[in-house]
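Deliverable D2.4 — example input (structure tokens):
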């Protein structure tokens, strides 16, 4: 081995090699240059053989990384020979070296602080208690929300071992409810927090590809407005195999490239259920915040000690180091009351909670049930809300069949439901009811209510499958089934009745039309609906 000393790494090395008559691409032996250190500097050793030997440990990727570490002058002297050795064009090698240098340059100026793992092992239960208490120190929210927020924050550190990254959706009906505060608190304790409230979609997916950060988006109600590309990126990033496909310039042409968009993301905004599509809302843990009362006291976040959050982040990093294997293999029991999407949302968080023992697993399960129930109520589709209201009508009136006209009237009687003004300010029309129910495979049919009445309507049994599939607390036809085949024991209910009227002992001529405040299903005006046995037909009412 031959050794030279110089105080000029690049120029000195080249000059000495030229002086000795040795070309850098023709090295019969290991050439090592020891740089004479200047005062108060450490000596540096450059092994040129390792930089240009494709067979050196690591293969092609490692060789390219070593070439990227060379100075521009040194790299230029060996690029052609090394490209040939690697079996690629020099331009291709240049692009790879440039990409590595760019990534290393970006890594040297990360937009977030890299947290050092806590030196000592931690107790997961105590840590989650600390995170939950810290959140409630600054934000007004209930214990279920605090537990869920703590688990979501911890989950960001396990992002490499889970398959689903649920959104943290921080929602409120008005301003000054603590949305930004909660987003900030979560950000200070999360893994690689990256505020991105005004970022473009391309900047976001490149940031996710490069840094794997936790994305924090405030004012999401305006950020996502008319931006379908962002919606698509956020939705795709919910699963580990979520990618976006874009074209990238390579030399003089463009080539397709897949960018991973899988990462933890937190969104905050006002009335997000109105501004975000159902597909996005269903992918999140929704924190519905309320404005603080004068008697509710929390600490000012601006006065908080930064070391408080740094210390917790350090412990969370250690938590992930020690328990990643356990979380990866964990298959926690998921509550049957949760639908498939909610189970996906909570799977990773319940796995994290299981590391903290039975008490925290119980807390996590309770939070999952509570927050999912609240979220479903706020984000229910029109069809789902219609099914729920129809179920309530069957249940409260204790009937097993109802005419289309009576069903619409009963729906419109509910002042809290949207049906009285559903048709552009007018009551729900029969065709709209039929169209909504047709999506669930439910169609009106002719039903005999007595020996004298045969109207188009619905039987409770037609809804059994949809109630079971789409409602959290379904009732089944077997629970309220009655003998409707025998006219002597048949029951029929008026839309204005609060209880079921038994007509079995009443002579038909004694029954008169109900003068209820029902919806006219044809003219959208108040009408008399004949609902009794042998009731006269109103020509202004269209019977379905």
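Example output (designed residues):
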């Amino acid at each position: 081995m031959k050794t030279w000393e110089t105080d000029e790494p690049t120029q000195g090395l080249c000059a000495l090699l030229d002086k000795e008559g040795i070309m850098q691409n023709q090295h019969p032996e290991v050439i090592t240059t020891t740089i004479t250190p200047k005062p108060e500097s450490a000596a540096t050793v450059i092994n040129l053989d390792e930089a240009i030997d494709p067979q050196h440990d690591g293969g092609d990727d490692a060789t390219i990384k070593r070439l990227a570490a060379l100075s521009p002058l040194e790299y230029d002297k060996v690029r052609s020979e090394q490209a040939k050795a690697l079996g690629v064009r020099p331009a291709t090698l240049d692009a790879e070296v440039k990409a590595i240098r760019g990534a290393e340059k970006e890594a040297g100026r990360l937009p977030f602080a890299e947290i050092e793992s806590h030196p000592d092992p931690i107790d997961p239960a105590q840590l989650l208690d600390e995170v939950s208490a810290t959140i409630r120190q600054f934000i007004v929210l209930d214990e279920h929300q605090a537990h869920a927020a703590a688990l979501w924050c911890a989950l960001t550190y396990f992002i490499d071992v889970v398959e689903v990254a649920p959104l943290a959706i921080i929602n409120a009906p008005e301003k000054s409810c603590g949305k930004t505060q909660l987003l900030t608190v979560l950000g200070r304790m999360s893994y690689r927090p990256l505020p991105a409230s005004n970022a473009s979609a391309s900047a976001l997916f490149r940031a996710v590809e490069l840094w794997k950060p936790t994305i924090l988006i405030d004012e999401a109600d305006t950020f996502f407005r008319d931006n379908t590309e962002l919606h698509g990126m956020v939705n795709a990033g919910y699963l580990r195999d979520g990618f976006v496909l874009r074209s990238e310039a390579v030399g003089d042409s463009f080539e397709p490239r897949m960018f991973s968009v899988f990462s933890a993301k937190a969104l905050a905004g006002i009335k997000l259920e109105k501004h975000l599509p159902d597909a996005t809302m269903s992918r999140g843990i929704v924190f519905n915040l309320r404005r603080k009362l004068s008697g509710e006291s929390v600490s000012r976040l601006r006065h908080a000690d930064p070391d408080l959050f740094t210390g917790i982040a350090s412990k969370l990093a250690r938590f992930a180091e020690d328990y990643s294997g356990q979380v990866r293999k964990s298959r926690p029991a998921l509550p049957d009351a949760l639908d498939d999407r909610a189970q996906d949302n909570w799977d990773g968080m319940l796995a994290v909670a299981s590391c903290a023992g039975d008490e925290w697993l119980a807390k996590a399960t309770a939070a999952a049930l509570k927050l999912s129930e609240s979220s479903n109520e706020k984000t229910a589709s029109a069809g789902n809300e219609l099914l729920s209201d129809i179920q309530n009508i069957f249940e409260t009136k204790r009937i097993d069949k109802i005419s289309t006209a009576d069903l619409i009237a009963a729906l419109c009687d509910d002042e809290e439901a949207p049906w009285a003004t559903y048709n552009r300010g007018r009551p729900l029309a029969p065709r709209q009811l039929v169209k909504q129910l047709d999506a669930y495979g439910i169609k009106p049919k002719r039903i005999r209510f007595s020996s004298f009445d045969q109207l188009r309507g619905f039987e409770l049994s037609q809804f059994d499958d949809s109630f079971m599939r789409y409602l959290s607390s379904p009732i089944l036809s077997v629970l309220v089934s009655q003998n409707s085949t025998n006219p002597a024991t048949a029951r029929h209910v008026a839309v204005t009745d609060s209880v079921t009227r038994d007509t079995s002992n009443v002579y038909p001529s004694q029954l008169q039309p109900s003068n209820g405040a029902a919806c006219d299903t044809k003219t959208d005006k108040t009408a008399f609906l004949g609902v009794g046995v042998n009731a006269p037909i109103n020509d202004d009412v269209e019977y379905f």
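The two ends are 98 Å apart (CA to CA).
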